[in-house]
Design brief:
alpha/beta; Rossmann fold; five-stranded parallel beta sheet; about 10% strand
Amino acid sequence: MDLLLHTCCGPCATYSTLYLAQKKFSPTMYYYNPNIHPYKEWEKRKDSLQSFAGLKQLPLIIEEEYELSEFLQRTVFHEHERCGFCYQMRLEKTALKAKELGFAWFGTTLLISPYQNRELICSIGRKLAQELNLSFCDEDLRPGFRKSQQLAREFELYRQGYCGCIYSERDRYYKSP
């Protein structure tokens, strides 16, 4: 089954694509991440994913436009809800791209991270799937998180220290009292 897989970075793609292929999916990776800040970080993650795609000969679609302004416009004054806005933006764009390209399925590598809100991601994905007459792949990829990190090291992929948004970058250094 063809699957358009929103892909946040190379490390998360490693295990996710292998696992989904075992589940009879044929993933096409899709890089759309307007939340990532700064631009050089966005670029490093994109380059890492391109490297992985080349190594494994996996199809990859890249949205080259850096839409940080749109992400910030949606999240400013709503920082505590930022993850939901972020999931919505990325999954909606992925679902619309899947529909445009004729994919019946879409999903996201965000489901590999134990640090993301799986229930919210799946809720948004299922709602979009219903609205657009698609199927959302809600496979629980979290058991492969450590393996994805190991594979990233083996493939010498860039590994980031935060989810990507300006708020998470702040939070990794600054702990409010």
